[in-house]
User: What shape does this take?
Amino acid sequence: MADVPFSAEPIVIVRVEQPSCALSHGVAPCGATGEPCFNTFSTCGARDDHVEGATLDLYFGIPGQGAPSDEIMILPFLAAPPSTSPSRVNVSGSDRRINPLGLRATASITFRDAPHTDFLVDPYRAERSYDPLGQGTFWSKWLVRNKYGKAGMRVSIFEGFAGDALADMVRRVYLCDSVDFSGAETVQMKCRDVLSKAADEKAQCPPISKGELASDLSAGAMSFSIAYAVEGDYPPSGTLRIGSECLTYSAIAEGANGTLDVTVSARGTDGTEASDHDAEDRVQECFRFADVTPDEGLAALYGFTTIPAEYLPLDDWAAEAGQYLSAYRLRGLVTEPTAVEELVGEVLEQVQAFQWWDELRQEVRFMAVRPLVEDPITLDEDRHLVAGTVQVRDFPDRRVSRVYVYFDPTDPTQGVESEENYRRVTGSLDLPSEGEKEFGEKAIRKIFARFLNSSAVALETTSRILARYKEGAREIKFAVSDKDGALGVGDVVKIRYHRLQAVTGAPEVRLWIVTSRDPRPRERRVYYTAEDATLAGQLLGIAADTVGDYTGDGSDPFGVAWISDASGLLPNGDPGMTIQ
Assistant: This one.
């Protein structure tokens, strides 16, 4: 957002991108006749001819507030500034109360409902036999006309100052979840960020299969027929589950009597046993990770959602995985419909990565949990941190002293979180921390990694978690002025704050990874939440002879490791660097 004088008037604009038909009523190829529609699918008189066109962008503002510099018509129906809540990433899946995919950003927008001329929203207004201003109200009519299109439509909230261009304002992008009457004269729109599409009920992997066995199937049969399904309901080849048996097939084709004929490649695959099945037993499509990289696996899962491809920067994901997660390969079978959000969370936890909706870049970001590789900026309370906004909180419940990964499952049809269903387990332990002189108790975390088959990468996962959370987790909340608010989620920052001290009472500058960002232009501030990332470590090289002694006062060059003395201490008494 451009620099503005402090006397500037803050404004908020909401843009609703309403789906709209590209055709004109009654003009070929539109075959509709009679009363014209409102260019929406729910009012269409020839739905087979409907063609989705450019969206109808509707802009809403608060009555009496200033306007942006853009030449747009603003509908004065916004009742108040929207209530928003930012997304929050769940680094390493450390907060066991929520999915490793984290929390979604939300917005609640209240609109006034009032009579309206239907200008903009009715392309055939001049042809109506009634006066739109004297009949009904804006939102009550809009809800009926957009019965099917409102859920999932894109909604943008712009916050800035009167006279700003929309392009220069802070913009948050959401998807509409619902629009409901909230009072006698108002409606309320609930929105979530784009990643909420992974949590939709329809976002299932694999999709629910409706086919059933047309007849009994013996354990030795290598072909069978599926009833109540058509060819498009199943992939041309793949893996199916019937009861507790998995089998692979090489071909599927329409047969007699409306059935599908399946050519089987192998029975009792993936650790299951071939068995007899009864007619009408459900035939479920399966989904397989066939030795893919983490980014490829995530891309496949998002293919089961309606998230537009423009929001998924797959090349960036591949670069991140190639640099920091090259040892990880995903292998495994999902044999029953599962929420995509759940599967994405499993992958992120197993490979130690995280994802979030980046409001600044308007894309789904992907980052490995990794050591620091670049020297971060430093924020301090003298120049950056807004007085009274800093809060530090410890989370001892996120401490771990033992991390176990169960991997290489024996039977994909059995429980994901059943220890008996895994062939192998590996772990990283910090036994001294469990002693009476330290924390005095065990803190165990178990990960059921059905997509990992390598002991080396399973051990890598446990070691990353233990290194980061062996002392628990610490969170800091703070605000900075908007001029210092360029930090984004996933960025690492150093913070110097008088309450963050070493054992001697001297200031301790620690590393923090941003987990949430909440810009508030009306306050000219950006609010942040960050998690202590100091124990995640840094990528360092041994100091050359020309580098001076370690001081520990923040002036030491970045990316350098000093050799400690025989007691493991550096010249100022700090513990020496260790290899993780």
The two ends are 42 Å apart (CA to CA).
